[in-house]
Amino acid sequence: MQPDRRMVTGALAAVAAWPGGAQAAARRAGAAGFDFLHGDWTVRHRKLAKRLAGSNTWFGFDGTLSVRPILGGLGNVDDNVLEDPQGRYLATSLRLFDPKAGVWTIWWLDGRNPAVERPVVGVFLGRKGAFFAEETWEGRPIRVRFTYEDQGPRRAQWTQAFSADGGARFETNWIMDFTRKTESRT
């Protein structure tokens, strides 16, 4: 499955708008963008109780994440264990870098509903990456944004946010704070 051209263009435009950002810097980050995430992590999840409803109520739970490179470094795959209060579940992310387009495409597979969801597409600028997709939430069109941030050798963060107004405003609804289990990376 090839990344949607609108999403690639949108991701590059978003990165170009970052302070000091430029598309060339994003392309230089290239296939190494996710290298910081390789290895084993403990995860603290925080989820907004109700999305796109003006909620300020959050709940938290723990999990684990194990990430390993594939395809000679042009991608990676992970195993997630999520200890959600509504029931433990497993999930996987598949991330692939397209060297021609200079973008990453990320698919999320949820063990509770084993189907491949629409991917998010984006780029890294320095230690932070932004990834976007057009989706539907509760019957209405939304824009989805994932961010991944390298916060040093032992910490990283992932966020998910939704926008119901075409990307003018985003509501963060899920945050994963990663803490490395060991210093070694796979």
Give a concise summary.
It contains 2 helices and 11 strands.
Protein architecture, described:
- It is a single chain.
- The chain has helices spanning 5-17, 23-29; strands at 39-48, 58-70, 75-82, 89-98, 103-110, 113-116, 120-125, 128-137, 140-150, 155-163, 171-180.
- The protein is mainly beta.
- The protein has one domain: Calycin beta-barrel core domain (Lipocalin, Beta Barrel), CATH 2.40.128.20.
- A hairpin with a 2-residue loop joins β8 and β9 (140-150).
- The chain is globular, with a radius of gyration of 16 Å.
- The chain starts with a helix and ends in a 6-residue tail after the last strand.
- Residues 18-28 have low confidence and may be disordered.
